[in-house]
Amino acid sequence: MLVLISFLGGGMKPADGSGYREATYQFDDKTKDTSRYFAETLARKLQPDRVVMFGTSGSMWDVPH
Q1: What is the pLDDT of residues 13-25, one digit of tens each?
Q2: pTM of this structure
Q3: Are strands 50-55 and 3-8 parallel, antiparallel or unpaired?
């Protein structure tokens, strides 16, 4: 079983409420994926059986992805 463990950080919400800025990640095999959350990109790449997210009350839980 493959489990992806990640952390959701806090941050300043943009005025439009969109959450984190998008970023494009490139893997060793030269594939690329764009997302606001690295864990989301990594989950698509690794296809884990389970994703466990940790965070605090200050983490941006309520922003759309």
Answers
A1: 666 666 677 889 9
A2: 0.72
A3: parallel
